[in-house]
Amino acid sequence: LWAYQNFEPKDIALTCEFGNTSSLLLSIAKQFQEKLDVYFIDTRYHFAETEQFVAELTDIYNLNVIRLVADQSENDIISELGNPPYQNTNACCYAHKIKPLKKILETKKLWITGVQSYQTNNRSDMKILELTEQKVLKLNPLLDFGREETQIYMEINGLKMYQDFSPLLKSQKK
Question: Can you give the pTM of this predicted structure?
Answer without folding.
Answer: 0.83
